[in-house]
Amino acid sequence: MKNITEQIGLGEPCIQLNDVTVRFNMAGEKVDNLKEYFVKLMKRELRFKEFCALRDVSLTINKGESWALVGANGAGKSTLLKLICGILSPYKGSVRVRGSIAPMIELGAGFDPNLTAKENIYINGAVLGHSRKFMKEQYDNIVEFAELWDFMDLPIKNYSSGMRARLGFAVATVVDPDILIIDEVLAVGDKSFQKKCRDRIREMQKKGVTLIFVSHAKPPVLELCEHAIWLDHGRICKVGATEEVYEAYESFLDEKTKKTAAK
Amino acid sequence: MKKFIHMCRCWITRFLKYWDLLVLLVQRDLKLKYRRSFLGYIWSVLNPLLSMVVMAVVFSAMFKRKIPHFPVYLICGNILFSFMRESTNKALTSVIENGSLLKKANVPKYIFTLSKITSCMVNFVLSLGALVIVMIATGVPFRWSNLLIVIPTVELYVFCVGLGMLLAAVTVFFRDIRNIWSVVTLAWMYLTPIFYSLGSFYNDNEPNKILASDAIGLFIRRFNPMYMYIQQFRSFIIQNHDAWEVPTPELMIRGAIVAVVFLIAGVATFNLTQKKFILYI
């Protein structure tokens, strides 16, 4: 088991990645039926179309720190988060995570559209590993935070994406985790809810949570994180203070835009 | 050895942690199955009852050899076989269908397969109501030994868990299985004595002469796991001491062995391949 819950002090490493490489089969070349499999086997093409989502990434994150992940689409940000959550396992290298994780890779992953919001809260809680008893105790807090009192008996399929995000965020932050992982999920809510979420994140930071945050919007990143990592094509381009990394990343983007314009 | 014990302990704590999820998923399946239908759970009883009536009408005229208590004989075979068919069919897609969730949360993947098979099991238990109704209607006496049906039921459940996990894992890599499995279960149904009895394969008058159909009968007796469970189940409901049938204690042992073998094969396949699931769903 990777997640050993143990008490570790502030400043001690809680996430360590050593030379991690993650390899995928290219999505378009997915072989998922027998005929194709044997044809490819005959042609010896099976292992050729590979794609490294992350290459030789080494990283140490200490407890209580807040890190932002920046980079273009497809740079490997989500892959890195999934690796830390234990959803993906590395092809090469090692991942060591200490402490409990509250993953918010997609809010309300596992919401069943046909079930009511109330039923979904319990299932989502169970997916995150909370017992039903615990969820019963926390139920009122969750509804209160999501501000969806009148809609709890409505099937989720009738919810808007913003409402779904509210519910998802409320369930995901019901515990005080050691590590909080947020992947561009705050963009859907309205202004006041976004502020509420940021307040809650900051509150958790004060309690010593380790934050890993992905967002394309600059202000929340600067507000919440002191460190940043810039990923490009699966490699780490720059690690450092948020301002510095963001400047480098932005100037890189500007240049790219200019180049495209020149063409 | 020490490592093995440690692994087991980790596995058990993780299973207990997600026990509530298993319960909730089973509840979800049952809730959604009959949501918005007028009769709701009554369908679990009504459905096998009605299909038994149809089959009884169709088949009672077709076979020369009279099977005693034919309606009860039929419904026993039917509910057991449909449990197997339904649970394996659902288990087959259990990993793929929950792909979006498995990509985003670190949940033990077998929970989804197990929950599908378990919800079918609950449905099966409900459909025993239909069996009771038919027994009353046709005047089959109730005995304490009827309760022994628990044994073949548990064996069948374990068998289906093993088979289901095997199918779920293989289907992630080869989606073809989904299409072929319905054909396989169809052939399997005809090779299982549900509406006929094994005796119809054997020739009473010339016991020494081997007919082509004798070979099929032999094959079913020896190798069809569903025969082991269905015949065992029936023998606890109606005492049919047909000389062609394998004696019940032997079926019990063979059924248990087959169930455990399938369970081990299913769990092993699932465990060995589950790390790669995420790349294919």
What does this structure look like?
The complex is a heterodimer of chains A (263) and B (281). Chain A has 263 residues and is an alpha/beta fold. Chain A has a domain of 70 residues. Helix content of chain A is 38%, strand content 24%. Chain A is built from 8 helices and 9 strands. In chain A, the strands form 2 sheets. In chain A, strands 5-6-7-3-8-9 form a 6-stranded mixed β-sheet, sandwiched between helices. A 3-stranded antiparallel β-sheet of chain A has the order 2-1-4. The longest helix of chain A is centred in the C-terminal third of the chain and has 21 residues. The N and C termini of chain A lie far apart (51 Å). The N terminus of chain A is likely disordered. With 281 residues, chain B is an all-alpha fold. Chain B has one domain. Chain B contains 11 helices and no strands. In chain B, helix 2 packs across helix 6 and helix 4 packs antiparallel against helix 8. Chain B starts with a helix and ends with a helix. The model of chain B has no long low-confidence stretch (mean pLDDT 88). At the A-B interface, helix 1 and helix 3 of A face helix 1, helix 2, helix 5 and helix 11 of B.
Brief write-up:
The complex is a heterodimer of chains A (263) and B (281). Chain A has 263 residues and is α/β, with parallel strands linked by helices. Chain A has helices at 34-43, 77-85, 117-127, 132-146, 161-172, 191-206, 218-224, 242-262, and strands at residues 13-25, 50-62, 66-70, 92-97, 101-104, 179-183, 210-214, 227-232, 235-241.
